[in-house]
């Protein structure tokens, strides 16, 4: 098995960035790999897994400590070994954050909008709500009105409850009258969401990963460790883009939207490497009961089916 040069370069780029955000990469690994395979891992094996990506033992321990403090992870001490698992709230947050990564490309849009009217809130609480809803893709129609054409109803409801504002804001659904793609609506979308910057970032993603897809297709035998490293960095880069993507319906997006090509590219690479990456996880990662369990059945539904 030969190493693919452009994947080595991708890993080297990540190793050389400063600062290396260990917590963010660990979230990617738990969300993409560990959560689907029981959700628990021995810290020692995780340290060994991360070292080739440029995270030394001290950085991993510090990052894990912070994730535990923030209630993403919980630890279980058995003898001298520490095993880290997702907390219940951590699991919910992982599932919420990663659901959009593996979802189908563009679900059918019914022309309806979710609107949140927050004019009853004081300025500070309105800012907090606005920030939370922006993470979910909402745009600002006016200072106290936020809207999204394909909001996750459960995620929105959970946010309103967590902030204890469900009785102080008005959540309504509005339906388009007439065409769903009028010039006025496209202008509103342009004003509410910064799609130009996002399109440029998606283009950088395409430029970085398209040569890797070509190299994968030209290689007969893929190395498991490289497949794991590529899968991790692929999802890591893509996840950071999706955090800023409002995931609007296709009808509201500019023609030749780079986000569409980026999703297809991510899916195609993932399908080629996921099995070998899981092989590396099975060989290197440990729980208190031995190797990681096999992936849960729903793992294979990612990207419309692996």
TrEMBL record:
Return the protein name: Phenylacetic acid degradation operon negative regulatory protein PaaX
The coiled-coil segments of this chain are none
Could you tell me the superkingdom of the organism this chain comes from? Bacteria
Q: Which residues form the Transcriptional repressor PaaX-like C-terminal domain?
A: 193-282
Q: Where is the Transcriptional repressor PaaX-like N-terminal domain?
A: 22-90
> Gene3D superfamilies in the record, alphabetically?
1.20.58.1460, 3.30.70.2650, Winged helix-like DNA-binding domain superfamily/Winged helix DNA-binding domain
What residue stretches are annotated with the Transcriptional repressor PaaX-like central Cas2-like domain? 108-184
């Amino acid at each position: 098995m030969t190493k693919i040069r452009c994947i080595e370069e991708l890993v080297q780029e990540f190793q050389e960035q400063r600062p290396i955000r260990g917590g963010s990469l660990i979230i990617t690994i738990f969300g993409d790999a560990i959560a689907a395979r029981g959700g628990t891992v021995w810290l020692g094996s995780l340290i060994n897994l991360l070292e080739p990506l440029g995270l030394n033992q001290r950085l991993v321990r510090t990052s894990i400590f912070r994730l535990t403090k923030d209630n993403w992870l919980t630890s279980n001490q058995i003898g001298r070994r520490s095993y880290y698992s997702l907390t219940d709230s951590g699991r919910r947050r992982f599932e919420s954050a990663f659901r959009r990564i593996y979802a189908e490309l563009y679900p059918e849009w019914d022309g309806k909008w979710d609107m949140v009217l927050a004019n009853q809130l004081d300025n500070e609480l309105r800012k907090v709500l606005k920030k939370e809803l922006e993470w979910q893709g909402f745009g600002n129609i006016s200072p106290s009105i936020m809207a999204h054409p394909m909001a996750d109803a459960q995620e929105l409801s959970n946010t309103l409850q967590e902030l204890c504002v469900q009785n102080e804001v008005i959540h309504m659904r509005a339906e388009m009258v007439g065409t769903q793609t009028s010039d006025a609506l496209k202008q509103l979308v342009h004003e509410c969401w910064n799609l130009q910057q996002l399109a440029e970032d998606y283009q950088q993603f395409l430029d970085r990963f398209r040569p890797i897809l070509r190299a994968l297709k030209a290689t007969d035998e893929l190395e498991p460790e490289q497949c794991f490293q590529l899968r991790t960095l692929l999802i890591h880069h893509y996840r950071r883009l999706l955090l800023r993507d409002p995931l609007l319906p296709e009808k509201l997006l500019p023609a030749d939207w780079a986000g569409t090509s980026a999703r297809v590219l991510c899916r195609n690479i993932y399908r080629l490497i996921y099995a070998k990456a899981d092989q590396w996880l099975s060989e290197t990662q440990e729980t208190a009961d031995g190797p990681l369990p096999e992936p849960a059945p729903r793992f294979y539904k990612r990207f419309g089916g692996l």
